[in-house]
Each structure stands twice: as structure tokens, then as C-alpha cells.
Amino acid sequence: MSAARSMNPSPRSDRGSPTDPHRTPGCMALLHVHLKPAAEEAVRAGHPWVYDQSIRKQNRPGRPGEPAALYDRKNRFLAIGLFDPDSPLRIRVLHRGNPVPLDDAWWRERLHRAASRRLGLFDTQTTGCRLVHGESDGWPGLVLDRYDQTLVLKLYTAAWFPWLEHLQKWITDLFQPRNLVLRLSRNIQPLAAQRRVPQDSTVLHGPPLHQPVPFLESGLLFEADVLRGQKTGFFLDQRENRRKVESIAAGRAVLNLFSYSGGFSVYAARGGADSVTDLDLNPHALEAARHHFDLNRAQFPNPRTTHHTIRADAFEWLNHAPAARYDLVVLDPPALARQAAERTAALRAYRHLVQRAARLVRAGGILVACSCTAHVRPAEFFELVRETLRHTRTRWRELCLTTQPPDHPAAFPEAGYLKAIYLQAANQPAQP
To answer: What is the CATH number for 381?
Structure first.
């Protein structure tokens, strides 16, 4: 799949052929769902989720993946979405406004529109990106990532299971990849087994895959473990922060906490870092980090840049690590709250991590604190970091704030999960 082909798709029209896998048999009526007032207003305002407690009534039980027509109290049409009886997030909105037929051409045009939003974002030096970003691209609970000629389709709701054959056809027709791999969120994997649909890590299209998939990012070579790796095989959403770290790494000793496969460290080395250290608890991730470092060594301007790995639990290691040892510390933990009930504990954990990581930064050094927890809003996270650092003996100067890259758009508040704050330690301690 060439870059030109993947970034300049052409829509194919097969109008008139409905593709709803749940076409109602006989006299069974279309599923009608009437919403409570607050949910009505949320859907009108563009929110893509309807929870079970927001439903006032429905004309019959719904089936997984069935299109559900949403109505207000006055029986006016609001939207149509996919019904998921196995989740408290009961309906994911596909379309709002006037009713439209969800025929083959409608779906293909929607996929083409999402891909077209990426036009001009990447050149041939970057062959890894997100092509479809869930609700923000009109495909709720679904993402599609590109790793050169391999595409990875990840589903976060079982509502897409009945549509899998159609998804495979729409995606392969439009992008013509060598491979299409299916990944399933952990919470829906048992449902996939029960319903006898393709399992996690299934190659839906193309020859079998036995090795990680190579791709380019900003001219650097990485490999994505699309069958077993986290997310879809690589953390594509941190690309812009990796580029920024590269720009500030020259001459610095860099520590990459929760390093996974070492992306930040490879960029820092190309930016001229004196040394880079990856710390992670997963031995396979550290092996991947060493491999990525070696793959790109020829691009590092300083041939003496050293690479170290530490296998440890970052929370425990930070409690005993020697102070003021690094010039650039990247703190990029996994999501610490996967549901709202975990939010308070996540805030405590972030405060602890920032406090401990700040101790490791030398005078004049930089701390990059990241969060990918959607239940902690960006403004709240930034203020938590600032407030935590105000209680240290060091003065800190805020350099910049970042959020999600353009191929990971956030069209509603809960979609804005990724954020990072860059701060530089003063050369002199703060006055008591």
C-alpha cells in the first residue's frame, strides 16, 4: 500500500444496496428508543453516547449491533446509533439530524471522509498513523491504524461484531492493504468467543503475520507488534511529543519512565542526547526498546550516545532513585483510571509520580509529564502538576502544553484523553 494510495483514497459507490446485517425480518419493527430529557439535549449537542439509564422507553428488546432510532419526548427523530445490550453504554450515535439510509454508499463515504481528514498530515517519512479515530471520526467504538502496508482494526464494543464482514470489505476496498488485523478490547473478548466471531489478533485479510510490522515515523524505523502489543501495536498518539523531546534532548542525560518500546528514547538519541535510559517492568518491552535503538543507531549524531535499560516497577523505583541525576525526564504512565470510580486514586498516583520524578531532574533540566487518562481532564492534570511542583524546593518554568495529534482528533470532551506539560527546573533552588 503506497503512501499515495493510503492517504488519497477514492470512494466507491454501490448505492442502493442496504448493508444492515440486522434487517428486520417479517413484521419486526425498527428499534425505537425514546430518551430522557438530559440525554435528548446531550445528543442534540453532539454527544455520541447514550447510557442505559438515559433511556425512557423502547418499543422492543434490541439485539447487538442493531441500528436504533432515537426519539425525544415529542416523538421527534434525533439520531440513529448502534445498540449494545451488553454494555451500560447502550447506544453509540452514528448520525444525527434528518434520517438517512445506512446503505453501502453511506458507510463507504463515511470511511472515505475520515481518511481524507489525514490528507497532507504525513509524508513518506511517516508511514504509521491513525486513519479512523472512533467517535470523533463518526465510527464510535472503532479505530483503524496504519503501519505501512498493514492496517489494524481495533473494536471497543461488541456492537460491531455483526458488521465485521462489511468492515473488512469497506476497509480493504478503500485502502488495499497487504494485511488487515483485528484487535479486540479486553472487555469484549469473552463476548467474541461466545458469539463465534473472529478472535483478537485474527488476520482478517492477507497472509499470516509472524513478526512485528516495520514502519517509519519521522524517518525513524520502528516495529509494531500488531498481534500482541498494547493498543494496536505502538503508541502512535505520542508522535508529536516524541518530536518535541527530540528537539530538546541535545547534550542531555534522558530518563524514559514507563518506556514501553523506547520511542521517546530513540527520538532523544537522534536529537543528540548523551545517554538515554528506558525503565519498564515488561522485559519484552525493554527488548523492543533495545532493538529500536539499534535499528536507528546510524541516525544518531553522537556516536557515543549510550542506551541503558532498567527493569523495574516505576512506582517502587522512584521511591529510592538517586536525586538530580538526569537532564530530561519523560514521565508517560499508562492510563491510571479506566473508569470514573478510579479517578481519585489516579489523581493521587499522578501526584506521587510527579513529585518523585521531579527529584531526579538536575538544575536546568526538563520534566515532561504526560497523562492518557480520559477521566482526568487536561486542565485538571496541568494544575495538579503545577501545584505539586510548587511544593518542591525547585522553581519551575512552564515551557508548553500539548494535547492530541491531528490524526487523533477529540470531537467531544471525553475524547480528549492525551495531554502533556513541559517544565524546566531553575538553575537555583527556590527561596524558602
So the answer is: 3.40.50.150
CATH of the domain at 124: 3.30.750.80
- Sheet of 67-71: strand order equals 49-51, 89-96, 77-83, 67-71, 31-35, 55-58
For residue 120, give every residue at least 6 positions away whose Cβ sits within 8 Å of its Cβ, in sequence order, or none: none
CATH number for 51: 2.30.130.10
Helix 104-116 vs helix 164-175: angle between axes, to the nearest 10 degrees?
A: 50
What per-residue confidence (pLDDT) applies to 295? 98
141 and 179 assigned to the same domain: yes
Residue range 126-157, pLDDT digits in tens: 999 999 999 999 999 999 999 999 999 999 99
Three-class secondary structure of residue 139 per DSSP: coil
Residue 379: exposed, middle, or buried by beta-carbon count in 10 A (0-12, 13-18, 19+)?
exposed
Pairwise CA distance, residues 313 & 36, whole Å = 46
Residue ranges for the chain with pLDDT beneath 50: 1-19, 21-22, 24-27, 431-432
Number of domains in the chain: 3
- State the residue range of the domain holding 75: 31-96
The dihedral formed by the CA atoms of 6, 12, 17 and 23, expressed in degrees to the nearest 10: 20
Shared-domain flag, residues 53 and 164: no
Q: How far apart are CA 409 and CA 185, in angstroms?
A: 20
Q: DSSP readout, 241-291?
A: HHHHHHHT-TT-EEEEET-TTTHHHHHHHHTT-SEEEEEES-HHHHHHHHH
Quick check: 21 and 122 in contact, CB under 8 A? no
CA distance 292 to 8: 30
pLDDT score, position 25: 44
Task: DSSP for 312-344, please give it.
Answer: S-HHHHHHHPPSS-EEEEEE-PPPS-SSGGGHH
pLDDT at residue 28 in the model: 60
186, 281: one domain: no
Are residues 126 and 170 located together in one domain of the fold? yes
At 353, list the grid cell.
Answer: 509520580
Q: Which amino acid is at 331?
A: L
Last residue of a domain, one of 39, 73, 96: 96
Crossing angle for the helix pair 378-390 and 343-359, to the nearest 10 degrees: 40
Residue 429 has a pLDDT of: 57
Q: pLDDT value at position 337? A: 86
Please state, in angstroms and rounded to a whole number, the distance separating the CA atoms of residues 392 and 390: 6
Task: Note whether residue 187 is domain-resident.
Answer: yes
Residue 306 and residue 394 in one domain: yes
